[in-house]
Amino acid sequence: MKISPEQKRSLAKYRKLIGSNDWGIVNQALELLKVDGDCDLWHIFSDGVRVWRPGDAGNPYSIIIPKEAEIYKKVKAPYRGVVALNALLATGKLEAEEGLYLENCQFISDLSFFQNLKDLTRLTLSLSDLPINLSPLRHLKKLDMLSLQGLKGLSDISVFEELPALKTLWISFCPSLTNFNSISRLHNLEWVVIDFCHSLNDLNALRDLKMLRILRISTCSNLTDYSALENLTSLEELGLSGLNIGDGAFLSGMTGLKKVDLFQSNIDDISSIKNAQNLTSLSISYLAGLKDLTPIGELDNLEFLSLRNCDLVENLEPLFDLPKLENVYLGLKSIKSIDQLRGFKNIKKLTLYDSGIDPGDIRKLRSLLPGCQIKI
């Protein structure tokens, strides 16, 4: 990017000031940047900090703070990140109603600036090894999307109780978090994603979330009790991955489900899923103990079914008479003969992946199922 001679002089001035270890001098640099309000200069000044405008590939304003950025070699740790963030805020270029993405939050030790962003609606905080105090988020009464990613020191999320507008919550790679009881009062929550939170041991906070429509839980090794999910009668989409589930009895009460993904979890008995009569899409992968598909054969509204790497499954007959089933994906080594598939008379698309069927038999299969598009 070409800059004017005037910008070069300003840039030199900012670099000198921002390199000081005196917070008062650093603050002078921020004030100078506020006066100039020059966003082009900000791009150069920030040494790697990048800013996106709203509407750029759907991204909100984002601040990416790389660890190797030159600015952080010059400024002591307590000021890292805060310097970059406050400088951007000082330009007046950040509209509060837009979203904000902060990466490498170990450079941001003080979140008090959120009191000046009371109209913020979307926020992502990610990547910090240090304890982080989220209490300043209580000012964000309009926040409807919050994503917390890789905050290893995060253990207290009680501030959630003061975020009444929250509809979407993502919590990923937060290993110190043991429970999230504070979300039980967030009655507007519609979408919750929980990934790789290995200390999490309690889902009871979900019981009363009557507006919840989408729930995805992945690789939370301490979770063993899923009974709280049985109350989620309005839930439409459920994804469970890498979990110690057991017999899946909680599925019996989840009558509103339309889409379910079960991946690499030790669930051997899926009989309770037969109560999900609104289910239209079901994906099951890497369930090593799964053998009996009879419960799936009772899902009269099922349109799409994917079965992958469930190698004890041999008998597909329970699926043949499903009235609305149109699209079937099978990645089963246990399927070795086209005789196991000839009963799919009504489906429109069949995809075979990693099966034991001889490629030469596929032509015969196509003649047996003339109305079906077969892919291998």
Topology:
Elements: H1 5-18, H2 23-36, H3 39-45, E1 50-51, E2 61-64, H4 71-74, H5 82-90, E3 100-102, E4 122-128, E5 145-151, E6 168-172, E7 191-195, E8 214-218, E9 237-241, E10 259-263, E11 281-285, E12 304-308, E13 327-331, E14 349-352, H6 362-368, E15 373-375
Parallel strand pairs: 2-3, 3-4, 4-5, 5-6, 6-7, 7-8, 8-9, 9-10, 10-11, 11-12, 12-13, 13-14, 14-15
Antiparallel strand pairs: 1-2
List keywords for this structure.
376 residues; 15 strands; alpha/beta; 6 helices; 15-stranded mixed beta sheet; 19% strand
What features would you describe in this structure?
With 376 residues, the chain is of the alpha/beta class. It has six helices and 15 strands. It has helices at residues 5-18, 23-36, 39-45, 71-74, 82-90, 362-368; strands spanning 50-51, 61-64, 100-102, 122-128, 145-151, 168-172, 191-195, 214-218, 237-241, 259-263, 281-285, 304-308, 327-331, 349-352, 373-375. It has a 15-stranded mixed sheet with strand order 1-2-3-4-5-6-7-8-9-10-11-12-13-14-15, with helices on one face. Helix 6 links the parallel strand 14 and strand 15. Helix 1 runs antiparallel to helix 2 (23-36). The longest helix is centred in the N-terminal third of the chain and has 14 residues, at 5-18. It is elongated and about 75 Å long.
